[in-house]
Amino acid sequence: MKIVGGKWSNWSGSVHFRPRSVVAPKDEVDLAATVRMAEGRVRFPGSGHSFSPLNQTDGTLIDLAAFGGLKGFDPDSEVASIGAAQPLWGLGSLLHPLGYALDNMGDTDRQTLGGAVATGTHGTGLRYGSLSAAVASFRLLTTTGQVLHCAPDENAEIFAAGRLALGLFGVMTEIDMKVRPVYKLQRRYFQSPAKDILRKLDGLVEANRLRVFLVSAQRNGGLQIAQRNRSACTDTPQRRHALCARRNPAAAGISVRRWYRIVAADAGCGGTGAETVRGADGAQTEGALEP
Ligand SMILES: Cc1cc2nc3c(=O)[nH]c(=O)nc-3n(C[C@H](O)[C@H](O)[C@H](O)COP(=O)(O)OP(=O)(O)OC[C@H]3O[C@@H](n4cnc5c(N)ncnc54)[C@H](O)[C@@H]3O)c2cc1C
Predict the structure, then answer these.
(1) Does ligand 1 come within 6 angstroms of the Cβ of 140?
(2) What integer pLDDT is reported at residue 225 of this predicted model?
């Protein structure tokens, strides 16, 4: 969490305030004690990407930085246990070596998992839910310092409401996310007159995972369309490891020298007939362009 001169600001700078105290608990026990003894209104920001003053307080600000990382993975249920303060940008690198990825993401990856879940952050595509929809269960530290495990069959009402609670029920410390086997995203850009796009809109929405419509600078009033669709990932475990290492060599446990070799090799194969794309799994991959 970034505090400059005692002042916290959100991503856009539209919300800023000076908390009375900033505390960084190291584990759940420490966090419970912090919440119980905190002075004033307690807030626990993620990455501060929300535009509304959700994190604002003149009381205690809790830095959840210690609550990240991949805590476990169950291949039978395809559920990964993740520390709630884990930034999304680093999550792909943790899941990718296991052959798994998040089902969907928004258009940036700077948020923490807890912040994104607490606000119902979503991507696009009719068949893909928000991050809250992929929550299988979570651990919640309530305002009284009690720890609850919340799942469809345990504390069910808190589970249902707590998946999108703007932090009102307490601090999620660990979130179990339904994940899915890795996939690639293929990106295609094209331009089309606005009237054609409007005519085909329902079909485009149905057939594509993600569309971004950009108002084109062209005089013909055309729209520039960016589509990203999934395709199967046929990467070997070694290839996945290399891709993960390219993004996060420290997590993959490789030397800087080897990392340079991987990056150089990868840059070479991104050249002809293929496009380098970044998957929701966090890794850059090459996908053949649609004609
Ligand atoms: C450039 C940009 C792009 C964006 N793109 C999208 C997008 O594509 N789709 C979309 O839906 N949204 C998008 N957003 C909105 C963003 O995803 C949400 O505001 C999200 O909440 C930010 O997460 P954060 O980690 O920054 O949380 P914060 O903004 O820091 O906090 C948000 C709320 O989450 C709560 N919270 C944080 N951690 C926990 C926790 N561990 N337990 C319980 N509550 C917690 C906080 O208390 C607070 O109430 C975007 C925002 C920006 C600035």
Answers:
(1) no
(2) 72
Neighbours of 231 (CB within 10 A): 14
CATH topology classification for 70-181: 3.30.465
- What is the value of pTM for the model shown? 0.82
Nearest-CA residue for ligand 1 atom 12 is 121
**Would you say the CB of residue 108 lies under 6 angstroms from ligand 1?**
yes
Find out whether the beta carbon of 157 lies less than 6 Å from any atom of ligand 1. Answer: no
Write the CA distances from 226 to 35, 39, 203, integer angstroms.
45, 48, 15
For 3-62, CATH number out of 3.40.50.300, 1.10.3290.10, 3.40.50.2300, 3.30.43.10 equals 3.30.43.10
User: By alpha-carbon position, which residue is closest to atom 3 of ligand 1?
Assistant: 108
What pLDDT sits at residue 193?
A: 78
Report d(CA 49, CA 107) in Å as an integer: 12
